[in-house]
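Please go through the protein record below and see whether the fold suits the sequence. Record follows.
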Amino acid sequence: MKEPLVIIGNGMAAARLVEGIVALDPHRYTITVIGDEPGLAYNRIMLSTLLAGSMDKEALPLQPAAWWPGNGVKLISGAAVKSVDCEKRIVRLPGRRRLTYSKLVFATGSRALRLPIPGADLPGVSVFRTLADTRQLISLAEAQAGVAVIGGGLLGIEAAYGLARRGARVTLVHLMDRLMERQLDVTAAAMVKTSLERQGIEVILEAQSQTILGDDKVQGLRLADGRAIEADAVVMAAGIRPNAELAKDAGLAVNRGIVANEHLQTSAEGIYAIGECAEIAGQCCGLVEPAYAQAAVLARHLCGDARARYVAALPATHLKVSGLPVFSAGDFLGGEGTRQILLNDPGAGLYRKFIVSGGSIAGAVLVGDTGDAAWYLKLMRERTPIAPFRSGLAFGETFCSAPSDSAA
């Protein structure tokens, strides 16, 4: 008889987990997936592309509707779980519906932070996190509204770029001295800023948002230094927070996220956590690569592989920011005892920086041409000595005499 497996959350991590279980042992579990968003699991990474008008929403779903029942998976969408009873192993849904489980997985993801500033509850204040958020932003852009975007991290930049591409007048406001400070150094961040400004986006750095102006709707954004930005709408893209309240109410150990070990096991027997809601070795992930790795490990574990363990890999970011290819990984700033290898060609829009420590690459930033990113990441993760090909390192794999087994 199949074991009942319930997965709370219908995002990218949950979908990858189901795919893994179906591939490994399709007859082991009766799987039910519960999502609070309506519709199918979709590729959240592509929301910025949808916002920019570069793709159709029909391409977002990770699997077609028929795939779920075709693989024996029951999908309950548009339903927020009310509570979990760990002792009785019951998940309570709206309308007095109940599901019993043998194994339970929290894949509840995270939500966008809303800054607690005056005016934050005005109509016209939104975030950029879900498909519904994206539809709202598309409507703003099509009305050629003036929009102030708060936050110069990846989400804020993607929102600003997409809105501008759709026709909105955009001002991007960031608290720090450079954009994407967690992924980029000063030079790389300046290149991204220039790229955004070429799209008609005004970028204001070292600016603290103080008050959203307006009485019954947004009329602008006031900064702490007294400046006022005219705006018909404000988008908050100042970070995310794990959705861990449901797990906490159920009695699970929760810090910033739901505490889980290397097997993705939480503090309660038979209950697991993956993705942005999980906290493993004191860290919460905000990227899809570790979430997918966790899903793969948990699929193996749930299908009987006791050796399956999640070990966090070197963090890396590989994406296009306002159409500009960007890659960063590891310790890209460096420090005492490290050396730098630089290639900077502003005319060609090319920048490559490598931090060398102990004879191997400890960190890297690439802007403009990221074609060799996978190779550089492999060198970093395997701590490959770069002495044999150091002189050609900044020019990429084809210019280096690295051993063939080091190729990506």
Observations:
- The two ends are 44 Å apart (CA to CA).
- Residues 288-302 form the longest helix (15 residues).
- The chain has three domains: 3-111+240-302, 125-236, 316-406.
